[in-house]
Design brief:
The chain has 311 residues and is of the alpha/beta class. It is built from eleven helices and eight strands. The chain has a domain of 206 residues: Aldolase class I (TIM Barrel, Alpha-Beta Barrel), CATH 3.20.20.
Length: 311
């Protein structure tokens, strides 16, 4: 059975803007959400890996949903990611996110405690049953017979497996690997959940729209134009770190700060990011003419005033 897509197609795995002290910069968060939606994103994933979910407090996670809903004003779906490797905590977070107005949730495989397959399926089932919201699974090939699990995000780039999952499960399929968005679309994926779309949302909208009208020649041109930017954002340091560094250099956010244990790019890493940026040509909705990266501002990582909490 195929599912109706209620999530959108051009989804941004949103970074969480922070000030120099590592506190969430709510004004910049609103600005960034409006920027990506105004430039074509029809879905925003907050509190995911890219959003530094591991070092956010529960209160911050819920506020990110609330701010996302307020800024979007119905223009885009707000999906909450992250969850927890503790089933009870994950259920609690997703219930609170639903109350805060989330349009959907993205659930990850429990990490660190290494449950068996039966434990993983039980976790998914209990989390999905705790909310009426539609669920996106992260990289999990199947839905375990749970009605509201309707989509999957694939960051592995295994096209043969992707084809098999789409054929056998009817799940809505999102590419979570920025360099493989076009190949995924070509074999039937619905859309993307992209880190680089924080920086170039209009281009990813253009790529999706071209694929929707079967204009794969134009889609290929957009894909190729994005390649140096994707390398800059995804290959030298964690995507969160690079995306914030680039967004700050563009003036979209005020600080490139990340929370420890993440740290900003070291000089050699920053040089590689900047070298890839130098290769970027024409990209829809984006110009690097006034790109001013700040290595000093990005250096190191921050300890927030309140540590992330288990509950």
């Amino acid at each position: 059975m195929s599912h109706k897509n209620i999530f959108g197609q051009t989804l941004v795995a949103l970074v969480t803007p922070m000030n120099a002290d590592g506190e969430v910069d709510w004004a910049d968060t609103e600005k960034l959400i409006d920027y990506v939606i105004s430039n074509g994103a029809d879905g925003v994933v907050v509190t995911g890996t890219t959003g530094e979910t591991s070092t956010l407090t529960d209160a911050e996670k819920i506020k990110l949903v609330e701010v996302g809903k307020s800024v979007s004003g119905g223009r885009a779906k707000i999906i909450t990611g992250g969850g927890s490797n503790e089933t009870a905590h994950a259920m609690q977070l997703y219930k609170a996110s639903e109350k805060a107005g989330a349009d959907g949730i993205m659930v990850v495989t429990p990490y660190y405690n290494k449950p068996t397959q039966a434990g993983v399926l039980t976790h998914f089932r209990m989390v999905a049953d705790s909310t009426d919201l539609p669920v996106i699974l992260y990289d999990i090939p199947g839905r375990a017979g749970i009605p509201n699990i309707i989509a999957v995000k694939d960051a592995k780039g295994d096209l043969a497996q992707a084809t098999r999952i789409m054929n056998e499960t009817g799940l809505i399929y999102f590419s979570g690997d920025d360099s493989n968005i076009l190949p995924h679309l070509a074999i039937g994926a619905t859309g993307c959940i992209s880190v680089t779309a924080n920086i170039a949302p209009a281009a990813y909208r253009e790529l999706i729209d071209a694929a929707n009208r079967n204009d794969f020649h134009h889609a290929l041109n957009v894909h190729n134009s994005l390649d140096p930017l994707q390398r800059a954002a995804m290959t030298h340091v964690p995507g969160t770190v690079a995306a914030k560094y680039i967004l700050n250099g563009l003036g979209v956010i005020s600080s490139p700060r990340v929370r420890l244990p993440l740290v900003g790019p070291e000089d050699a890493e920053a040089a590689r990011i900047e070298a890839d940026i130098d290769l970027v040509g024409a990209i829809t909705g984006l110009s690097f003419d006034n790109f001013r990266p700040d290595r000093n501002a990005a250096a190191g990582g921050a300890l927030p005033k309140v540590a992330g909490t288990t509950r």
